[in-house]
Model the fold of this input.
Amino acid sequence: MTCDEVRQHLLDYQQGRARLETQKAVRAHLDGCAGCTRADAVEQELTRLLEQRLPQHPASLALKRRLAARWSQAPTERSWWSRWRSSLVPALAAAAVVLVAAPVVYYERAASGAAREQSAMVAEAVNDHLRLLSSQHPLDVESGGLHQVKPWFGGRLDFAPVMTFEGDADFPLKGGSVAYFRDRKAAVFVYARRLHPISLLVFRADGLPWPSRNLTRIGGLDALATSERGFNVIVWRRGELGYTLVSDVDVGELRALAARMTSAP
Amino acid sequence: MSVLAEQALAYVDALHNLARYLTGNETDAEDLVQEAYARALRAEHQFTPGTNLKAWLFRILRNTFLSSYRRQRNDPTVGGLDTVVAQAEGPATSDWLLGDVELDRLRKVVADEIEAALMTLSEESRTVILLDLEGLTEVEVADVVGCAVGTVKSRLARARAALRHKLKDYAR
Done:
């Protein structure tokens, strides 16, 4: 084996990936070649350097929490798919029954599916609110007014968040940040009521199964008002954007804020 | 949460590390990891059981970086780093380094210097070096970067030679 051939195989040799005869040939060559022995030592030193001194950048705890929270939102879709796949044969056997009962099954499934999606959307909004509360730096931009917060989102989102309510004495605007809602980025506007933070997420609504039942008129729009884990949640859609408002303030106060937001032009 | 999801989340540190070296900063790395996991979530049914989940996630992360993230970036420093081509990084051979003096220099390199040197390499070179460090086989690395197995071998050798060339500037 020549020096060039040995050096081509050095990495595989050091990592034990070379075939046995190649390992033996390289070993034999190294025993008698000072130049290749130094090359071997340099490669080993570089590997040691990379393994022991190259800084590692593990994910932050906050990122791990966000990922875990988001992935935990999707088991219904996956389990449905998984069940469908694994039960294909029984499903075929029951096809006749399904055909007879199709209208009823379709209606019930659509209703339960919509309820699940609605529940998942509300749960995601509350999770995002909780992440905001637990974050050491909940605000990426402190508010000096809406005219400071909105421009800050420029370049950080793939849409322009539409929000004209600038805050007032009852609900001052504290600042903003960027978060994720489901699979997309969201603008987070943080308002307050006394000492209670209120988070408003604004995100692209396309592709999301939007709540269409149990809506109530708030301000100028139909919205879903509900509660989850002790937090009051109001969800509405305006044009291509979706909005979720979450806080532990009284539901009447949260509705009052939502009314100001949805009534604004 | 499915078993696959739990397994996938166990690799978040490794994915974030690669993302950090691809993007060059923490904020973009977190965005990239989140987008990669979102894509993985949508494509979960496409994962083949029995294959390397870690390699599958690395492939999604790198494709995400190449297909969407990098094109959207306006930061000239990232583009600058990524436009460094392997041929321009240094000699493919490393005879100039294969001496005791160079070995001594390597031994004196500190963490910040090796990180800085690695960041001067092309995206492709950084990727193959880091995937090799993660313990992926050449077949798995080839799958991640989308090339032949033989090409991985030569790219890795060239990337390491280029890294040594860069380290020459630090280790004095």
User: Anything to note?
Assistant: Residues 74-87 of chain B have pLDDT under 50 and may be disordered.
